[in-house]
Structures
1.
Amino acid sequence: MKMRLSYRTGKGDRIVSWRSPGDPAPGRFSYGLDPSTSQQLLMWNGTRPYWRTPIWRSYAVISMYVSAGTVIYTAIVRTDEEISMVITVSDGAAPTRCVVTSSGRFQLLSWNGTVSAWATLQSWPSSGCSTYSGCGAYGYCDVTAACRCLDGFEPASAAEWSAGRFEQGCRRKQALPPCGGIGIGFVAMPGMKVPDKFSIDSTNRSAGECAARCAATCSCVAYAYANVQSSSTDGQLIKCVVWAEELVDAQMMDARWGGETLYLRVPVAAASTGRNSSTRGVKTALPVLSSVLLLTCILFVWFWRFRAKGRKAESQYENTNTSSKIRADHNGDLEFPSIRFADIVAATDNFSKTLMVGRGGFGMVYKGTLDGGQVVAVKRLSKDSDQGAEEFKNEAILIAKLQHRNLVRLLGCCTEGAEKLLIYEYLPNKGLNAILFDSAKKAVLDWPTRLGIIKGVARGLLYLHQDSRLTVIHRDLKASNVLLDAEMRPKIADFGMAKIFGDNQVKANTREVVGTYGYIAPEYSMEGVFSVTSDVYSFGVLLLEIVSGIRIRAIDGIMECPSLTIYAWSLWREGKAGKLVDPSMAESCSQDEAMLCIHVGLLCVEDDPSRRPLMSSVVSILENGSAPVVASASLPAPNQPGYLKMMGDKSQSSDLENTRNAMTMTALQGR
């Protein structure tokens, strides 16, 4: 199902209620995209807002596990003319529909064949005070479905509030000082569905700049610093959201649903003594006054002088013979290599566009040359990166600890100021996807080269899962995360989403499913359960892509089958698996070796995780398959792979793929 909203007319599709349970004439409730912002969904009672969703965050696709075998996928798709919300369900799910009832509830219903009736999976609004402005101005509905006043506010009428009537809302406990005066601060309220009537600052501001803008604007009453998709077709992430009107329809959300941190403008005294100062933290933004700016400048100069002295003393311990000027900053037993930002700027010609060799949701990758001629790849995380500080630290620590010929090698990192950069060995042939899926380039990948890449990736995964001192689950193995050196040898990259398992840990559960659609194992996508077999599934998909030269999401390239895995299995079942082999390498291909690889790939993408082979078995089969026909005959027959359908037609799938370069699915609720 697709609900559209035209940028030009501001009109779009809505789900409309019946007039009554027995009368299918159009009722007074309707549900669709908010035409004033396109950042949220609204339910209207006639022309008045009745209920509102949280604002859209940075995810192009979200998935929600609602029952066994049923996952609801919601995607935001933008074109030059319109924005639309596309809703699909997982393949094999029971018939599912969205309904707006005559009483004003949005429901997700699933058909229960046992009792021949529609079962309610989800229903909104969930409580009386969660309806639009149910707690009045400056009030909010808390997680217990009770009305509360925002921090720094109190009921406008204590008598009305005690009687359960909240229409008059709340008022400030302390009046704000005159505009431009000293004494403005902010109190933080995390986990909120932020109020309505917001404005999005199109300037790419930092958190401090966003706070300063609100502090310096007399009409600003609150701000939030959040990942919000802009309404433009480029999918730019906007972070600074501000409010200049009274705050209405705020709600504290259950922790599993996330929410944003709302910063309320209050007198400094209220910010420093409010209850949030001890329980939720206080963030105070000083007014933009000349005296404060002068003090800030003094502190800034003092800081950099102190830092320069520290660097001078530190340089005595640096290895003056290293061309890359890398120094070691020890953190426990981890040697954490670091490199100065000034050296990176010089190496990349100030991040010249001519030296940019890659880009993704995290930011840009540049080719650089350090003093002495060492060529490196610099991964620079943008301010709007999906990979935050925690993922950055995770990737740096993991790669520094892991050493294998089939894993990318970390040379250094930089965390000066707001900058987060990782410096890797430079691999001239870049990502496997750039060659494998390019019809003009793929001919250089003959069969011996492709088989070597398959074996190299398998050995790298085996090291991560079993042979390293850590048990690491990569969680985002795909063609673009396999880099190729000058000899076309593969190296696994991008460990930002990786997880470390304990010695006796077999699997883990999460509410946040990360990875790229098509490579994610069914049990992980549907239930949030991941293990080493999740990586095995991703490896199986990658293996089939390497043999066929077909993208997992290339609908036009896999005949009438819904996915590459189903297409490969169908050919195998019919005894025609040879048709899967990429024609561009037909002359160099060993059919027996290719059949063995396809067989292994199909075993890796089994729906049942327990039936998938471990990477130790995969490596053994591939390395010792000197007689591929015999090796394949000794393996069990593969079963039909699982498949989670994202889109019902080709055009929608194409639109969805264009929304982000590499999609990440985030489960709002897992089991």
2.
Amino acid sequence: MQLFQKPARWAAAAACALLAAAALPAAAASADTGAAPPVPGRYRLQHLDWQACDSGALECATMAVPRDWYHPDAGPDLSIRVSRHRATGPDRRGVLMMAAGGPGASGLNRPATLTGLSPKLAAAYDVVGFDQRGVGASTNVVCSDQDTVDAFFTSGDLRDRSTAAIGATFDRARAFVADCERHSGGLLPYLTTDQAVHDMDLYRSLLGVDKVSYYGPSYAGALGAYYATEFPRHVERVVLDSPADFTRGWQSFLVGQPLSFQRRFERDFLPWLAKNDATYHQGATPADAKASYERLRATLRDHPLDLDGTLITPNHLDAAATNALYDAGDRFEDFALLMGLLEHPEDAPADAKKNAAEQLAHVMGANFFADYFAVSCEDSPWRRDSRYWVRESAAATRVNPLAGARELTFAAICANWPRTGAPKVEVTGKGLPPVLVLASKLDPAAYYEGALRVHRALAGSRLITVDGGDHGQFQNGSACVDGAVEDYLITGALPAKDTTCAGAPLPEPATRG
């Protein structure tokens, strides 16, 4: 297996990139008008000019949407790039809309992967996707360049709690926010989940259907829950896969995430690594494997490694580790091999070093970074007390260091973001068909406790718990999960009660000396 091979499975979310949308007691509404006005004719009557996508596997089109759905005549229009896979069977049953996680990931090509893995859904549905406002082939948000984004992760050690390091973190955060305000063209206040679901409903209308079914993993779970709440008459069946916990807001979700990354690392990855010590030579017990990780990290802290022109720091190692935890089958072995390469780069083939350097060079792409924070900082209010975040992140770094060390970096940006005017939305499941929720007990990113709260918040929902740890359960090697999702989307049949499915087994390593 090639180092850091990108997984083909659509459900894999971008590393470290989730959002829980606000869920506070109020109706979905504009802060000043109480509701979005009727859709103006210039949007409602536009025509989608379908042409082959660049990839060739789907049809694509572009639709115009107002920058602000609550004041559609104010400001320039935005472009939303949309895609579709036409149903292949004679008995087309409707439209299945899907979206990407992040926020910040592209959803344009997701229908091709989903239909390729599920002939039943490909036959029954027109499966449609889109790039959310701010993302990909849609109108982009622009903040800082890639070098500036890289500096968040390549400067020093995120575990460093010195006064100088903390001050530098806040300085970078303030500079990033200023870049966003300066370069975004006034777009920032309109990059919210609420605005995006109005885009989705226009898309539904332009497809000529009264109702859509919906599938969304990760942040797209929050997006789907918002859509169903704000447009309940236009949804038929809804699947939320490994949903980000939208019940308490993004700030609460961020504080909870270090625990779940650390939990997966210590309960799944380290025991797997120790079990395969004969292959990877990192220690025969989980404690020994963890000690190997910490020794490597300390070495990179004291002596950053020049790997084919990329300077590798301990932050790169932590980011690669958290990324590996999303999907054991695609990523555990890659990361174990990476540890060995970073320990003994002199023994690695030149192409392996080049590939590893390319994969590690940018922890987050600049475009992804911009949209991720635009949505997560804008969707819900944030505590702005820097002293609170210094204390909170110190505890996270000490107790759950793998992802806790990055907490101050993320929180400092949203703590300095312009105050949000996004409406508050309460997701209750009222007026909706029963929703199917999928969750894994050891999911590193969308932690299981949050999925339980999502399940409780959606009255009448069914929960399928997966005894595993990957992020994204559908089309991830569990026939039990795949069958339940396909049955529900095609026939409407849900499990009679909450149930459990076995997850995909942890991978067997390739034969290596």
